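Standup notes
- DV: blocked on the single-chain target, sequence here:
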Amino acid sequence: MSYKNSILPFVALDDHKASGSALASWPDRLNTPPPRLSELGLSPEVFEKDTDVWRRRIQGYWNLLGPKIKPDTLRNVMDMKANLGSFAAALKDKPLWVMNVVGEDGPNTLKIVFDRGLIGAIHSWCESFSTYPRTYDLLHAWTVFSDIEKKGCSVVDLLIEMDRILRPQGFVIVRDKQSMVDYIKKYIPVLHLEAIGTGDSVPDSDEEEDMTVLLIQKRLLPTDEKVRDSE
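- DV (later): unblocked, structure below
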C-alpha cells in the first residue's frame, strides 16, 4: 500500500450536490478554497493564508526532524488540532498518512478537511482517543495543551494518552506557549520521552502569542539485561 499524498482523497459530495456547488478535482482540491468556507464565515483569502502559513511551518518542522529521520521513518501522522487541514495539505509530497482531529467545542471545520480530500474525526482531548488499528509515528500538538488546560483538564493525563498512542521511537511536535512547553518538560522523562530539539527555524509573525516548538521522541524501554547492567 502506498502512503503517497498524505491521505487517499476522501469524497463527501452529497452536500455539494444538494447546494449546486462543486469541488475542484483531486489533487487541486487540496489547496483550492472549497465552497463551504462561507458556512463558517471564512473567506478564500483566510483559507489561502492559512495554507501558506502551515506550508512555512512544515518546512521549519522538517529542518528540526531532518537529521533524526530516514525516508521511511514516518508513516502514520496525527494532527491533533487540524483546524482547516492545512498541516496535512502541506505534507502532500511526503510518503505518509495523516489523521486530522478537529475539536468538538469549536467551529465544525471537519467539513473543510473533507472538502480538501483529507480524512479526520471530531474529538475532545480531555478524553482518550480510539487508535485501532494503528499507532502513530508523529503527533502534532498545536496549542492542544493550552486548550485543555483552559477547560480544566489535565495536561499530564494528555501526555500519558499521547505516550500510549505513539509508537516507540516516534516523535511529538509541540507548538505552544513557552510557559506550557516548560511545564511539559518537567514530566516527559517519567514517560521515557526525551526532548531532542527546540525552536523554529522559520520566524512566525502570524501567531497571537509568542510560541515555541518542542520536538520530543519516545525512547525504547530498557530490556531486563540493560536494567541489570545499570544496577
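- Follow-up: DSSP finds eight helices and seven strands in the chain.
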